[in-house]
Amino acid sequence: MTARLWHDQARGESLIAPPPKTIAQLRAMATSTRMQYLRHRRRWMRSLRFETPAIQQAYQTMTDLVEDNAVSPPGAKDVIAVTAPFAVGKSTLVRTWAQDHYRDIIGDRIHLSQLPTWNREVGVVADEVPVVWLDLEAASKVRAFNLQLLQYFGYPLSGAVTDLTARIHRILDAHRVRLLVVDDTNLLNLRHKDARDVLDHLKHINTVLGQRGASLVLVGADLEDSAIFRDPQMAGRLRTISLKPCTIDTPAEVTRWQNTLAGIEHLVLPYLPAASQGILAGHHAPRIWRLTQGYLGDVARLIAEAAHLAAQEDTWTLRIADLERTQLSKRAQVAAPRLRETAAGRPREAPSVEVAAS
Ligand SMILES: Nc1ncnc2c1ncn2[C@@H]1O[C@H](COP(=O)(O)OP(=O)(O)OP(=O)(O)O)[C@@H](O)[C@H]1O
Ligand SMILES: [Mg+2]
Questions:
Q1: What's the 57 CA to ligand 1 centre distance in angstroms?
Q2: Which of 81, 91, 307, 355 has the smallest count of CB within 10 Å of its CB?
Q3: What span, in angstroms and rounded, lies between the C-alpha atoms of 311 and 117?
Q4: Distance of CA 207 to CAs 37, 41, 71, 213, 351, Å?
Q5: pLDDT of residue 346
Q6: Strand stretches in the chain, DSSP E
Q7: Residues around ligand 2, an ion, CB closer than 5 A
Q8: What is the CA radius of gyration of the chain?
Q9: Whose C-alpha lies nearest to ligand 1, atom 30?
Q10: Is any atom of ligand 1 closer than 6 Å to the C-beta of 267?
Q11: Of the bound ligands, which one is closest to the alpha carbon of residue 87?
Q12: How many Cβ atoms sit within 10 Å of the Cβ of residue 272?
């Protein structure tokens, strides 16, 4: 990632929804027009970002913590740690939030094709880069961390680790950095004998950011088990946001799952002209959970692909067969048959979901 790419992505328009059509209109379309329409519909469905109460809560918590850090006295600030099992949607959530935060700071300048600038000193103009996003590479140590940071701004990468760290201090000021997000923090090499250095470096970066009222956000898989959480000084500063896939073990969770599907249904029902209300939130709710185990990325893929298969066969709804034959992620493929077997013996798979439509 680079500052330039981040800016371009923040400027990017989200995919425009295709106009909803009736079955008669769809059937009257020329084959090529219909194929084009279906491709657009599928792409749009795949681009949807679903909301759950947990996602909304996490978004608000990040906003609050960053605001608190901005106004509390200078010094080491709270570090935000977003942790979850693999593929739950950590990066998607934090990226969405960080891009909104970037747009808030940049304001109207988001329309510029170049990076926005500010007057650093009289006569000295610098790029303004309020948000830094690092995608860590495998087994990163201090040097790799510093290099990635420099690369984000397009600075030279040569020099000793200490020189690079000093250069980073200057860069944070020169570009008015407010937020540093480190994604895939689990890839920091904390098992290696250099682990102490890596942790100390993170703490140092947090202090440097804190002196400027800026925040550090660490995103990673199962961070609770990592050395970051075991380090007493770090643990004292961590504010943890834990995400998990939607579960259906209690009546309250079943209701939340149905509400999540109702939200998705609200978006996609206009594109399923032969489907009735409740098709996702009621009728297919247990099946969608079994096939996806509550992972929103898998839900998005399942619905988009199943709707596409159904449309190609001119049915314009979502049938059981469409859901069952959709290609799932490897993770879901492994888990779904296991759940089906379990369901034969116990009602674990089938939540007590009312069938609201057929
Ligand atoms: N709220 C959401 N609505 C729809 N799809 C989502 C949502 N969140 C994530 N996804 C999709 O789920 C998939 C996994 O998301 P993401 O990469 O954010 O997960 P992650 O927890 O960061 O994974 P990893 O542990 O591999 O870093 C992606 O395809 C993403 O587009
Ligand atoms: Mg991720």
A1: 17
A2: 355
A3: 48
A4: 52, 47, 15, 10, 47
A5: 43
A6: 79-84, 117-121, 124-127, 131-135, 179-183, 215-221, 238-242
A7: 91
A8: 24
A9: 297
A10: no
A11: 1
A12: 21
Task: Give the residue, by CA position, lying nearest to ligand 1 atom 31.
Answer: 297
| Strand, coil or helix: 248 | coil
For the chain, which ranges sit under pLDDT 70? 340-358
DSSP string, 64-105: HHHHHHHHSPSSS-PEEEEEESTTSSHHHHHHHHHHHHHHHH
Domain boundaries, the chain: 3-52+247-345, 53-242
- How distant, in Å, are the alpha carbons of 15, 150, 160, 192 from that of 144? 35, 10, 12, 14
The rounded distance, in Å, linking the Cα atoms of 348 and 358 is 22
Instruction: Give the model confidence (pLDDT) of 22-36 as tens digits.
Output: 999 999 999 999 999
CA nearest ligand 1 atom 6, residue: 297
Helix (H) or strand (E) holding 253: helix 251-268
| Distance (Å, whole) CA 259 – CA 134 | 34
- From 92, 244, 329, mutation site for ligand 1 pocket: most ligand atoms within 8 A of C-beta: 92
Give distance in angstroms: CA of 220 to centre of ligand 2: 7
Which of 251, 172, 185 lies closest to 215 in space, CA to CA? 172
183: closest CA among 152, 147, 219, 140? 219
With the most atoms of ligand 1 within 8 angstroms of its CB, the residue from 56, 82, 91 to mutate is 91
